[in-house]
Amino acid sequence: MSKLDQLKTMTTVVADTGDFDSIKEYRPTDATTNPSLVYAAAQLPRYRNLVDEAVDYGMTRADTLSARTGLVLDRLAVLFGREILAIVPGRVSTEVDARLSFDTEGSIRKASELIKMYEEFGIDRERILIKVASTWEGIRAAEALEKEGIHCNLTLMFSFAQAVACAEAGVTLISPFVGRITDWYKAHEGVDGYAPEDDPGVKSVRKIYYYYKHHGYPTQIMGASFRNVDQILGLAGCDLLTISPKFLAELENTEGDVPRQLDPERAREMEMEKYHLAEKDMRWMHNEDPMAVEKLAEGIRNFTKDLRRLEEYVRQRLTAA
Hints:
This protein is α/β, with parallel strands linked by helices. It is built from 15 helices and eight strands.
């Protein structure tokens, strides 16, 4: 068996791409997208029909360029999600505008609009995960959405405080950013890399995993943002792992044993304090982690930058139309 096939026996593999051909090739259970992935895919001639469909939708339902742009962005995300769900047996993650990261009501409203679009295509909301930033405001939005049966994937996850708050809010899934955590430590410690056992990003996810399993939280953990295959294999046994086509190919083309690294049975034997975080507690605990503070702020800025690039592309298409 390839390492990818072995990994699939203990972890749900998720494709981190908007490219349908890659999803078909590596047969993941779920898939996740974001504005940068949608932008890259939208440039390809084979997906031109989806862009045209989204532009037509915006043109016929709004009168101003601004309103049309917003509708096209949402429709494009949902159209890519629709096509992905025709390939994968599980779920797709669709992202809320990063500029709503500190807007609870705005995030709830946008998530509801996206779900409504999916349901217009006859797609059950059980197959959709709405991606929301793991800010205090985003977590509160996700808590409210979960109560309405809208499942959420809390992204831009860097601190243990964020993970605790998400579990207490009852969110469906969190996405700790392994590679970005490691990037920060490499830069600040002046090293080129780490062994899997010492990798700060891997250690962060392992800590969250054992905390959740020890205390019986149903929230799932999906490791994300990998820099190398060793990070992925260092989390074998995690609930889910979202992996780019580059690393899916490397795993598919490599043989060798893949030992389980994360085991829920082991969690039950551990001694772990349980936290209950009010807003002030979560903000303080998060603030005490300089890596998490820097990477969360940077992540929101970068997600917004990617969205604006997609937004400009959509405006150009609308103007041409």
